[in-house]
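Give me the fold.
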Amino acid sequence: MSTAGSEPGAPAQAGDATRARRPAPPSGLIIVDKPAGWTSHDVVGRLRRLAGTRRVGHAGTLDPMATGVLVVGVEKATRLLGHLALTEKVYDATIRLGVTTTTDDAEGEVIAEVPAGGVTEEALHAGVGALTGPIEQVPPQVSAIKVNGERAYKRARAGEEVELRARTVTVHAFQVTDVRRAGDAVEVDAVVRCSSGTYIRSLARDLGAALGVGGHLTRLRRTRVGPYDLSMARTLDELAHDCVILPMATAVAAAFPRMDVSAEEAKLIGHGGRLASAGLGGGPIGVFGPDGALLALVEERGRTVRPLAVFVP
């Protein structure tokens, strides 16, 4: 005996396994101009709905207070995110000297206030200079770093004193663009270009500590992640009208060195094989076939190139 809907031509019923599904969106990157008040996870949740897939992730977290460039991967592009998170970043920041907070930013509770009006321009620039180049930096108590398997910010918000080790980061440039004074208050605007893993909140804290008055971050806007800057970013409202996805090949060509291979080499790399080194550096390197299609991300090891991620079927 036939069941309803199982005969040829029978209409599909609600919940029927044969019901047509929405096609998956193209794989690629969405460059978002994150609004203040949103977590990076909030943005991912919104884009899952807009793109029509749960396979969405982000590279490099932005705190709720911060705005600016957040790189989001869709479908296969989620495999790029770990590599993109390691790229150089640029920020516009405002630091308030004279006030120390529990979180090293404006969202924390004030724990100390010291008049900062006596800080001279010379002392300020000396302090900034000392925080430029390779430095040892202690992350904020409320960072997402795991301590014994739990995020530091969860322990800190539960009232626990979290011990975090200093890490080596590189501040390529720390440029003061404006200084505003009003009585004992001093606000410093700056542009920071830095390596992955650098906390701008920690720079604000350490600058204030070096000047003897304390300090915290009051504004942060990320203007660039690797090759992706604000000129490419779209607000969530703009993406709701047109969810622009940067194709994988375009995204990889912009972010990594490019290696073009022959049809025979394309077949080899598609099966996870190794190629001869092209002398392009350690990696990642984008590998493209004769037709310009993205095949893989690879890294050079000695005289050979081995796949990090293969994107062809």
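Residues 1-19 have pLDDT under 50 and may be disordered.
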